[in-house]
Amino acid sequence: MGKKLISMTVNGQTHEVAVEPRQLLIHTLREELGLTGSHIGCETSHCGACTVDFNGESVKSCTLLAVQADGADILTVEGLANDGVLHPVQEGFTEKHGLQCGFCTPGMMIRAYRLLQENPNPSEEEIRTGISGNLCRCTGYQNIVRAVQYAAEKLSAE
Amino acid sequence: MYPAKFDFHAPNSIEEVLSLLSEYGDDAKVLAGGHSLLPMMKMRFATPQHLIDLNRIDRLRGISQDGDTIVIGAMTTEKQIIASDVLAMHCPLLPEAAKQIADPQVRNRGTIGGDICHGDPANDQPAVTMAADATYVLQGPKGERSVHSSEFFLGSFYTAMEADEIMTSIRVPAAAGSSGSAYVKLKRKTGDWATAAAAVQLTLDGDRCSSVRIALTNVGATAIRVAAAEDALSGQVVDEALIDAAAQHAMDACDPTEDLRGDVEYKTKMAGEMTRRAIRQSLARARGQ
Ligand SMILES: Cc1cc2nc3c(=O)[nH]c(=O)nc-3n(C[C@H](O)[C@H](O)[C@H](O)COP(=O)(O)OP(=O)(O)OC[C@H]3O[C@@H](n4cnc5c(N)ncnc54)[C@H](O)[C@@H]3O)c2cc1C
Ligand code: FES
Ligand code: FES
């Protein structure tokens, strides 16, 4: 039950890490790589605070073993901005007050990022079902939906 | 929250999986999407010594056609089921149901095989595949065998699959003629398991219902196929009175337990109502409405 050496690309940078098989990806990201942007909420696959982009799909990183990420390409909230310029999704959350306490926000933004890749021009309902795996206890979702709409407009204008 | 310690195996072939299962027996578990198994391992409800990841075996994934049968690899994700043109055309019940399972992140990882093999009466695919007349293909050290969906579920978290077997595919007959289906699920919120749900698939011959299959989710120890309700509709011109009779049979077949989703009476009534709605919707679809 020794450690396994895995290699994964996170936010464009390749990392080699030795992980115990039972280590969950969220712990590797936070504790081994120091990427604490992705949060741990429920730890039971419900809240989506730990959402990361995994080989082009949104996943809950509390429900994936780090050993399963060997060879994976991962994007976390830390990788959204480009050279200090906020990604349109981040800009949307700022402009439209898409957060209050901010706990759900990294997961919410990384999910919104992928949602807009899959569906660049979503309706309000598609946004709501698209982020249904991410819980927010503060905002009532209204401004999160507006933030995603803002990002969709900005991205399609680019 | 960490699971208990285990050894991790990531084989590339079904043969390797079977030999690992033979070697480690009850100490081993296969890992599919992990969205039922990993939470259970974190809570120490499951403590396998050996975890065998199926994710590297491409042969277990994908949707294809074999004559009049649709073959769905056990490791096909709910997301792939929703996106499948073949299923949209030949078995729309499955994508309609998959859209109602969990949330986008869970559907990206969760597999149809895992949803079935878990044996959880709250899961949707058991009743849905029963209504779709599915057969499950299992492979073990003695070779391959098929078990019909109606005979697979023996109790809560207890199925006809042996510990040294895996499910390789789900075979579903392509819906033929004037057929219609529906999965109607009552849930408290998006992403929740069913309070009660009904899966219906039927075929019309003119005005008459020539064949019908009805199954219920989360109102008993397993998914429940309601033969009495099917008998009530078969060969008949289905009207509201017959739909009511079928719903009554569904309620009679229910044996739910009280929990946060409701008490026994409420869940039973809701199973009846979901059955009514699913039959009405299937009829309308079969008539092309
Ligand atoms: C927040 C949340 C909400 C959910 N909501 C729903 C819902 O509404 N409806 C629903 O149906 N499900 C729901 N689920 C469960 C989800 O669909 C799971 O993905 C599914 O139950 C298990 O599939 P899996 O691929 O993740 O399997 P795993 O969790 O990897 O495995 C489950 C079990 O099946 C066994 N197994 C898996 N594949 C095979 C195989 N090919 N051969 C033999 N054994 C196998 C494993 O050993 C394990 O015992 C939800 C899950 C979460 C976390
Ligand atoms: S911490 Fe992963 S879903 Fe809540
Ligand atoms: S902003 Fe507080 S949980 Fe979403």
List the keywords:
heterodimer; A: 158 residues; alpha+beta; Ubiquitin-like (UB roll); DNA polymerase, domain 1; five-stranded mixed beta sheet; 5 helices; 34% helix; B: 289 residues; Uridine Diphospho-n-acetylenolpyruvylglucosamine Reductase, domain 2; Uridine Diphospho-n-acetylenolpyruvylglucosamine Reductase, domain 3; Enolase-like, domain 1; 3 domains; five-stranded antiparallel beta sheet; four-stranded antiparallel beta sheet; 11 helices; 14 strands; globular; binds flavin-adenine dinucleotide; binds FE2/S2 (inorganic) cluster
Main sheet overview of chain B: 5 strands, antiparallel
Q: Identify the biggest protein-protein contact and residues per side.
A: A-B, 30 and 29 residues
Number of strands of chain A: 5
* Integer average pLDDT of chain B: 97
The strand order across the widest sheet of chain B is 4-5-10-6-7
Based on Cα principal axes, name the global outline of chain A. Answer: globular
CATH superfamily of the largest domain in chain A: Beta-grasp domain
Give a count of the beta strands of chain B, DSSP E runs of length 2 or more.
Answer: 14
